[in-house]
Hints:
This protein is an alpha+beta fold. The chain is 43% helix and 19% strand. Strands 1-2-3-5-4 form a 5-stranded mixed barrel. Helix 1 (3-19) crosses helix 2. The longest helix has 17 residues, at 3-19. The two termini are 19 Å apart.
Amino acid sequence: MLQSLCDLLNAALRETRTSFPGQFQRAVDAYVDSVVPSEGLFEVGLVTFADWFLFDHRPGGGPTPLSRYAAGLPAGAVRDDASSVAGTALFASFAYDACDTDGGLAALTDIETGIAYEVEGSQLTDCPGWVGSVVTGRIARVADGSWHAVSQIFYRDRASLEVGVRVAGDIRASAPEGAPLSLAFAAELLGGGPLTESLRVSGATAGQGARR
């Protein structure tokens, strides 16, 4: 993730936690009710919570915390990026088609819609061995039109592409009606489901790395 994007998301999380402590605690309680981390995955659970909270949590059906944070920023490049990221964020499962390590781009195709993306982000380009498999995570477009990986965590199924597509579809189908896909994948991962050993963590904890 570009450092500027990482800083932006961290600032949005801090601002919401400080300015709306009651709402933040209610969100924590709701998340814990849905996602129970297995032993040793608590810190990863903090990262999946932050992603869900910023992008998918809509208290009272209103704006997400990231959208509200972006709206409160002064006019300028940071606000433009924050608004664009909040408005275009996509959590999905992708076929990882190709990796351009020199150019810093990963070629992904959304397995549900067939839409192709060129995505910047070391979470993906540091793992060229993942080409030909299914990866799941969140991407978003910044104001200049380029797409970036904004999840600190990407899930990668180490099975064949065909099997990975099927597993991702099963997880998508298992999500409760109205629940975001990020919640379904977090519950699968943190509860010890089939993707647990295929986790790629970038920047979540010092002790976690790429599991290829």
